[in-house]
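DM from R.C. (forwarded with permission)

"hey, sorry to bug you on a friday — could you get me a structure for this? deadline for the figure draft is monday and I only need the backbone to look sensible"
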Amino acid sequence: MSIHPLAVVRVVAPSSVNRVLPDSVPIFAYNDIYASVGVNQSDFARWEQQNGMYSLGSESKDGAILVPGFPILSKVADMYVDPVTLTSEETSALVEECERALPHAISETARQELEDIRLLAQRALNASAVIRFDQP
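My reply, with the result:
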């Protein structure tokens, strides 16, 4: 039996948002990654109930975000629904958010995926590229 990731994080070359470089990180520990920054499945459900279905990557009407203190991880929360391509500034912020989340990882898989995303984002910045969260 084959196990498929829920989402994938890719490096995207700056010259064309459609040209993807060969680096990627499959996301299997979606719930554990978000639990590591304090958001559990009940929080996701409450957010959707208050802000509408498929609103995870959006600010609420009052300006709140899904994961307080983690605006990029909030923005990409719907990665398995719609692709989200980050700007260079957001890619840089993603590196910092992953660094802050790593000590709080609730599982080894979440820790490894956060570290892999951090390293991938750093490589993207070094190549003047950005990151895209997308479906596999």
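R.C.: lifesaver. Helices lie at 30-36, 41-51, 71-75, 88-101, 108-126.
me: no worries. The radius of gyration is 14 Å.
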